[in-house]
Batch of 3 targets.
Target 1
Amino acid sequence: MSKNLTTRADDYSKWYNELVVKADLAENSGVRGCMVIKPYGYAIWEKMQAELDRKFKETGHQNAYFPLFVPKSMFEAEEKNAEGFAKECAIVTHYRLKNDPDNPGKLMVDPNAKLEEELIVRPTSEAIIWSTFKGWVQSYRDLPLLINQWANVVRWEMRTRLFLRTAEFLWQEGHTAHATRSEAIEESEKMMNVYAEFAENFMAIPVIKGIKTETERFAGAEETYCIEALMQDGKALQAGTSHFLGQNFAKAFDVKFANAEGKQEYVWGTSWGVSTRLMGALVMTHSDDKGLVLPPNLAPIQVVIVPIYKTDEQLDEITAAVNILVSQLKELKIVVKYDDRTTQKPGFKFAEWELKGVPVRIAVGPKDLENGTFEITRRDNLSKETISKDEIAIYIQKLLEQIQIDLFNKALEYRDTHITEVNSFEEFKEALEGKGGFVSAHWDGTAETEEKIKNLTKATIRCIPLDRVEQAGSCILTGNPSVGRVLFAKAY
């Protein structure tokens, strides 16, 4: 099945697009720029969603749901946010269609059904949520307000790519209100750390934690915390953001509370989110020329068992042995599938499950039954082993844990060997074009220099790392003083 997959070396972008479709993750829809997430892809998203949702609730957050539509005047209340998203907004102007008298069988917009106020289809929900918070917060006793929403949003992208950039996508967005500035900053950092822990422990993707420059900051935020990942082609991908909003939205929507002394104060806010873009990160970080490679913690199927037989009698004997193993694996909470389809040969099944990235494959034939063994193949490195049936369940459990660790370490090694320190603009360009990855360089802190570097090289400042060492230096472009290195990269 995977023979027709373009190789990463030949065309990384084409490889990615083909893999997402051929592995049954998603496909383009009848709506330009929008995708259909297929059951196998959605099963991965559900696993992501379940783990993140658990983490949010552990940290005291509650789920709610807010309208898809935002009145234009409400959207405009926080000017920077409205300006930042204005070019991506879809707008509802009418609420009814009618038959077109000039084109029988066709419909037209009813000019008499114009909305009194246009509605924005949410590109993000700060406006509608903060207008709601106004009614929920009166006293310091109502704080902190810790809300999360699982939803879809619409950003009218002109150039789209499955999962990475689509006009409509799925995400979660957290929105919180606090009594003090320090509490809100603590919340912003906490949620960045939740995202980082999820990316590393479940997605097996190492990330760099940092803050965005003012230019790259979320519209309406005072600070944007982020986690940045590196894909196999040397391009960076923003895997999650958490924003300290200050009192910007509280003031825009008049969200105040009475403190312990009875004095009225504006609350302090945060918002944070990750989206189905994580699916793209998962594909690009681990997969190979044979197809998907999925970390066990997120694989919809962790183990697939394929019988190899010639007669129905042999299949029955194999099935009896497999049923025992399936029960053992299920007791260990391992998700297993027995692929006993009679319509496809073993070779086809092997290729199909390789393409779909199932972490462990077990093959069972008549000789295996005689020997009391099973043949096990790891998807990540395609190595094979023969294991006794008496030891196999615990062996599989430990193997899945090892695969998870190995995938992370492999990605970490790639990331760490693709961070290059440079001290001149020539070195900077050479690293970007030759090696790729993150380039650690001094920058003078101005938006003008940041924009010039972007225009000259297509590289952006991905983040100012939280763990950077403050050190005096000279900006690679202007030679002006710099207080420390930042990470540049070409990015998705």
Target 2
Amino acid sequence: MFQYRIIDNLDLSPEEIEELINSLPEWRREEAKKFKRIQGQKENAMAYDLLRKMLGYEPYFEYGSHGKPYSSKSEKCFNIAHCKNAIGVIIGDKEVGIDVECMGRYKSNLAEYAMSEAELKEIEEDGDKAFTMLWTKKEALLKLTGEGIVDDLKNVLTSERMNNVKIISGYDEEKQYAWSVAYTNDDGNGDADGML
């Protein structure tokens, strides 16, 4: 069982942003303030705030060897993501991953580096939307496994890596972002509680 939330109403006044950042535990406040721009601080703070609301307590992050956050004091697995247009959080009983990305990242040289031949054909047909959707799928899967960005991005979505992994994706044409969640599905059921 897992649940995820994608929120794309990130409109906060400067005072609300400051209040939210000040409501964070000291260690997370310091993390948020590492972002030079207020936009990054806001995204970081909002993602953590959503996570603590979904969990019902304030988790302290520890980090795996490739930077994936976890909490040894939590029975739940979790992952967060943010971009300037949306934030996303997923929690579950097993490992989970989530990614959100703004549209407009497509560049042919990046696509040739990161995408397989079949994926490049899909991108030819649907351009930036297809590129961004595929990128979020790859990143959500790599966040689920805790690997982080790997050297061979072309082969991330192969059947070997996707064994017992399911990915749900979507995009918002109006707000110009795409998202994907990845979760393990050992029993074939994959109970989800998703909300946009």
Target 3
Amino acid sequence: MRIGELARIVGVTTRAIRHYHQLGLLPEPERLSNGYREYGLRHAVELARVRRLTELGLGLPEVRDVLADDAGRELVEVLAELDADLARQEAALHERRVRLRALLGEAERGRLPADGPLSPELAEFFGELGDEMFDSPMAVKDREVLALIDTAAPPEDRERLMSTLLPALAGPETLAAAREVYALLDALADAPADDPRVAGAARALAACVPPDLPTGEALADGNTLLETFLADFSPAQAEAVRLAMRMAAEGGAP
């Protein structure tokens, strides 16, 4: 039979058959005197096996390894690895569905945050703060940056920052102090960097910075995230934040 007939019988494309020839997954028959390849039953059997293996989720390199092992041991190993991988995918899918159902519940109650889906930890933290905290323009900027870190930071960096920052901002006294800092920084919205109020705002902010927060790393040259963050501030606000971070890195506000 010709390649098109083989393709129809096994349920693959002729392009796939040619690709399998190139990869060595399927023996290529010799050409007849008229230049056409003539496929036989053995080719159909081998091609059907390739199809079954790929439908199980094996990649073509794995299929080649399986076909090269006459004893079948390689197939058992590959299938075991595939089963373990599928188990991990199922667990991840289950976790995603749990988060999705929680977000749908929040949406039904009209409480889905404007900045979109967040990790459960950060969503709970924002909920504890309450909407009144984010009446401040500076607080809104902080919220946006926390949401960015929640999404984009490497897992270990995100976990370290959240485990340090979030507990430190919990409680009525620390929330009241944070509101005071936000008010001081909001008052600098149109001020130059040498405004005399900068030092006081910096001291108040430094007093709120958790001692374990890696402020020294953030002040390192070339920190793109920090510079992008501060570029959205007025000169006085940016200077107050930089000064507060230096104070915190040196052991606290004087």
